[in-house]
Amino acid sequence: MVVAMSTLRLLWRIGPISLGTTSLTIIYLLLGCSTDQQNRLNMVASSPSRSTRPHSQKVVYYVATTGYDGYPGTETQPFRTLSHGVSVLTPGDTLYVMSGTYAEALLDNIPSGTSWSAPVTVAAAPGHTVTLKPDLGAGRVLHFQGQKYIIIDGLILDATNVTYEAVKITLGGGLGGAHHIRLIRCELKNAPGQGILTTGHADFNEFIDLNVHDNGINGYHHGLYISTSNNLVEGSIVHHNSGYGVHVYNGGSADPTDRANNNIIRNNKISNNGYVEGGAGIIIGSGDGNTAYNNIIWGNNWGISVAYGDPTNSSVYNNTVYNNTNEGIYIAQYSLTTIVRNNIVYLNSVPQIRDKPGNSTIDHNLVGTDPLFVNAAIADFRLQPGSPAIDAGITLATVTTDIAGTSRPKGGSYDIGAFELVP
Q1: Is the omega angle on the peptide bond into residue 126 within 30 degrees of 0, that is, cis?
Q2: Helix (H/G/I), strand (E/B), else coil: 305
Q3: Taking CA 195 as the corner, what is the angle to CA 131 and CA 98, rounded to the nearest 5 degrees?
Q4: pLDDT exceeds 90 at position 8
Q5: Cα(37)–Cα(19) distance, integer angstroms
Q6: In contact, 101 and 137? CB cutoff 8 Å
Q7: Which of 92, 229, 338, 383 lies most in the core, judged by the most C-beta atoms within 10 Å?
Q8: Which of helix, strand or coil describes residue 378?
């Protein structure tokens, strides 16, 4: 059967030739194929090929636990494995994965797109619940090196059996750093290391609407470890990771261009991280021009730390930082030109904001005063009417909406904290 399939694929791709039904039947008989084998070979012959399909044609393929990799990958005749499914993708294509648990890892084998207008997408089919859980011994669930413009959408990435991170985006293979990788609406859990790690010039990635939790076994393992530049962490829930929730730091590279600069962390809910050896919800540990705004951060060891390395020009705007064990906002001695504005900092340890350099810009924050949350006990950090945070902030060009997408301001001035009260 294997020889037959290989022979047919060869005949099919020698071209240009035309094989009619009679010609195919003769070939099958010569190869000694049964009727069932002939039917399967017809499917193989008509299955898609990256080498024969016009580059501009965008196609949707399907994978299912009941599929077969010899099928054409349609909704009614899906592939069986993601590894085969991604092998036929070209820029603009989508691979929809149907419900089930797949014991697979996708390691450097998803082809690149060419732009955000023509990405390669691997996604849970609409309405389907899909888990990737590799077998014991896999290094990671997803690994990218040198690839670009790839979207991973709606998958549960269960790293219980892997050796390292759930997802790593890096350089390798002489192709430079992977870049423009977007993870959206995914759950990442149970990695023994980082939930997500970016290294080695892997810049311009996007992590949107994720649920990143229960990753790590020590204080050096974080929900997201960002050591590259121009990445976005947005709209995600990051909780119960052993180290920091979101860790921005690059101090180990000898390459002066390999830095963690201009990253944006916004509109996230970050809680209960650092439960092994302590850690902040967010740390900006090095780099220039990193910004954290509209985040809600509670129940961690620290709220937001601008510390550890020598971060410069860091901005901390409109965050709600509540009930963390140590300082709500901590700025270490070697952190330079930090700006802290429009933050609610309440029920953390005293001082709620510690500025060790003594020259940071810190103003228009609500510190140590009850902000009148709707119900902090159930993590509802919206403001009640009459809150002292209402209209007490300063206009910030970077922050045009709140965490819920409500435009700012709704009153005479910006509200302080992650939420803008809607009258």
Answers
A1: no
A2: strand
A3: 15
A4: no
A5: 17
A6: no
A7: 229
A8: helix
